[in-house]
Predict the structure.
Amino acid sequence: MKIHNLTREEVLHTLVTSENGLSEEEAERRLSEFGFNEIKEAKKKPLYLRFFKQFTHFLAILLWIATVMSFLSEYLHPGEGMLTLGIAIAAVIFINAIFTFIQEYRAEKALEELKKLLPFYVKVLRDGKEKEIYARDVVHGDVILLSEGDKVPADARLIETSGLRVNNAPLTGESEPMLRRHEAYEGEFIESPNIVFAGTAVVSGSGRAVSFATGMQTEFGRIAHLTGAVEAGLSPLQKEIVKATRVIAVIAAMAGVFFFLIGFLIGRSFWSNFIFAIGITVALIPEGMLPTVTLALAMGSQRMAKRKALIKTLTSVETLGSVTVICTDKTGTITQNKMAVTKVWAVDGAEKTRESLLRTAYLCNNARFIEGQYRGDPTEVALLRAARETTGDFKGERIAEIPFDSDRKMMTTVYKMQDTGFMIQDEKNRASFVSFTKGAMESVLPLCSHLLIDGKEAPMDETIRKRISDEYHSMMDKGLRVLAFAYKEIEESYKFPPSAGSPEAKEVKSEKLGNSEFESDLTFAGLAGLEDPPRPEVPEAIRKCHEAGIKVIMITGDASRTAAAIAKEIGLVKANPVVIEGNEFIRMNDKELREKLSEKEVIFARMTPKHKMRVVSILKEEGEVVAVTGDGVNDAPALKKADIGIAMGISGTDVAKEASDMVLLDDNFATIVNAVEEGRTVYENIKKFLTYIFASNIPEAVPYLAFILLKIPLPLTIIQILAVDLGTDMLPALALGAEKPMPGIMKQPPRKLQERLLNFSLMRRAYLFLGPIEAAACMFGFFYVMFNGGWRWGEMPSPDNILYMQATTACLTAIIITQIANVFACRSSRESVFSIGFFSNRLIFLGIAVELLLQLFIVYHPWGNKIFGTYPISLSAWLVLIPFAVFLLFADEARKRIRIFSP
């Protein structure tokens, strides 16, 4: 027989396990026999194929064409140095391919390491005790404990259920939650209600199941095996970089062809023109741009992880910098999630009545005290702790439960009570059936017809209702979360399902219990106020958001007065905010909601998670870039809909984490603001090193223009250009990608998503301001050496002429020296480098040190001379170039002060 056809006892027998689960020894044995419970990734492209891909992209193809043409020209017209040029360009292709491959590989590995910070845990029974283990350690026969928000770790057969509903969308595509039962089923396996499948999510209720398939043997694993690997696409920013690189490469190629033709018109030889065309093309191609951007994004995600924000995709890094609205929960995100009962209120104020209320809180509760620790929802843990510390433990057999529902805002349990110390015990000392209810006051109070006074039940009247309501509002105004408690003794004549207290009874009652039977004519016990103090760092984070032009909207399930009190305490609202409660929200049409959302200060109270989706949708339609927090199953749609979905790492469910783009490892609102700051920083840093890279294109291109137009010796050879682009420039550029957030970055308005990375301001600063200063330096260095060596205008020395080689060396050295100043200038587009801390980025100095060592090798080592066509120059040649670097740095400082050419 198949597993779904078996009875509960047959399932346990077949899988050689028991209701108490496996022993630790047996679990270890099965783990070694069957392996880890994990989906093995389909084989990725072999590394050698991924490496080969680096030789076939657009830029590489352009350079291959240049290489072939160089080799061809050497064959047809030997002695012009084209062989050396061909080898040099081929070397560029290989260097660029190796560098890009390494950076992409490192970025991929960095993301994999970050994902390991989010282990998937599951509760199982081992040796009869509840234990939390990694999902990968689940084995055949493990008894798995399932509750709302859990992700099912393996294919398992249910043996006990209580209102259990599962979302099978990851497997079947059907998003409607399906009710699960544990009885034997004779139909098709895939449709069996007693089976839960790996990868699906528990939407509500609870249950126990025995795993029978793990890893690749699960239905999910089989589908994954058939589907194979799907390669992730490039992020929008990476696509923009690729597009920009292609545009620049095409412009470079067109410029090469154009000046090749111009050379013919002014009488240059074919080979002179050809060298020029290749040189101008190579000079303008930004060979190292794409791998540098990829690495910057990866470094940004790693920095965020250190600040407790786990980024799941590189795309999220760039989107964070554009966030305009943050929709945040209150509990656990703005507050510390350290719930404590600070006030217990009864109408008569009697100690006996207060104890009755705490007993109700104890029994209408799913938190547990296990092995000296409280486990469960923070609110329920606080209530359980207060009850245990005040009245001790109670014994009772839970018959049924109506789970908490975000629409009803309350929960009810039914117990068979035999504790003679309990407040409801009939005179014959027989067992009593009692229902216990807790929830929002507006949900519970209307269901109450009596209240407890001096240990006796008395009728409820309007005067008492008003008194309760006034106390409720008073407690909320102090920022307390307030819950109401009530109970009902069930008549002896009520017909419970057979075997009261058995799994069958729990299952039937969970489906059939309703307001009419157990949630009507209740006896009101009192109110409990729970305090969850705000996190101390939140007010500063809220202030940062306001300065950064980011609107913060609180969306909470708490009552409006509680939410408003906390909001004022943390500085989220100043005057009279717009407060919208759930009932009012439901009645609003989209136009009315848009008007409310346009207000400066907005709070949503008594909201259910499903309402978040509508808020997010309206905000996005209004052009906002929305980040939204969530921790529950019902938050998943809103997390997916938002531009940035943020799940809670501590209190969040597995489903919420899976749907999110970012996970807060500390559940702290301040961490969101830190992540936004890092997102803005990453984007700014990319602009910084692009400005740095593009600025050097001008001094690389101008010598070729001078060569063709002024009829002078070529001041800079192609291989020397490559020494800059893929040698001396690379480490300083990467160091710019590691810049810390600028002091004023959170005082700027959010970046628009439509804003182009390579905008006119950036190109203008690089090409029209910084670049020309560097070009003047390199041409001055060339002519300084040539004229001091006795050169006369019109003379064309041979390529191996010592004076000529010294002049090209001086030209190259001028670029290096001015690029050192440029890297400091590019550390900020608006703030003075001296105000942000001249020595604050140590990587800059490491990059400069390597840059100088490489240049010294090129200038003074015989190998460097041979490879790059250089010759040692005097100290005076270095010294005359330093003023250009100083001028560049202070000219840019002046530009920042008068705000011209500011990106």
Q: What stands out?
A: The chain has five domains: 3-37+112-229, 44-106+233-254, 286-302+683-903, 309-336+534-667, 340-528.
